[in-house]
């Protein structure tokens, strides 16, 4: 995937922030001409930025002064004062400032597929904020794909089947398989985990010496709380067994069985999802994705309903931070 173009608009002395786009009207780029501190700008233009986010799905703020993680946190709080923690985790992260985390800490040679943040859960952040603290030597872009392009291209028969049944996620937590449940739920108290599972309509089973298996049926699509658009919104293509290398999947199935895989996705009625369906979803996301090279100090705001994000492989050191806000709770969960 090649980086998308950034179309420029002339900046004037009266308007030191120029407007352009990464691709057509998707992902607005606001670029400062004088390196002004970003936090005051965001606080002063909050309503405009939120309107731009609804309209363009993502906003890249470039050329402003954002010297460190604390400053980045202040930028995010200029949009939403109450940032979110990270519960029911699917990947390892480190909290480097108050409610500011490292991005997913996977090996640099791995691709992180495009996805909506926490679309496997019963609640998720409505808005995401990314900060480029250190760009990679090569690669390391954060590609984006807009649901206004993706969702209409998904065949109707696929959408309708998922809408009828939802998506069932089966996860196994443990030191040898995936993240330990203590890290996922941020507690070592089994009673707290059980209470969380009951409250979120999640089946649970303690396994082995210190393992945990959960099963939950979640939405296939979600309705945007402000624009009222219905968009594809799930983790099917990330959690499905076909997302693992075939030889790894075969080894794990041989040792733990299909039910013992670290994570897997099924139709909500428990029937297997065909590999060709999952491949089609992955390919459509790749076809609709655009990216741009990170620059030091960039801040990217993403509407988590309207756009997916991922990560390209990279070389050298790379440090991208993330914050999340505006928790959305799905009040109409299907039952497992």
TrEMBL record:
Its cofactor is Fe(2+). The keyword 4Fe-4S does not apply. GO terms for biological process: antibiotic biosynthetic process. Residues 41-322 form the TauD/TfdA-like domain. Signal peptide: none annotated. One of its GO terms (molecular function) is oxidoreductase activity. SUPFAM superfamilies: Clavaminate synthase-like (SSF51197). It comes from the Bacteria. This is Protein AmbD. It comes from Streptomyces fuscichromogenes. The gene is ambD.
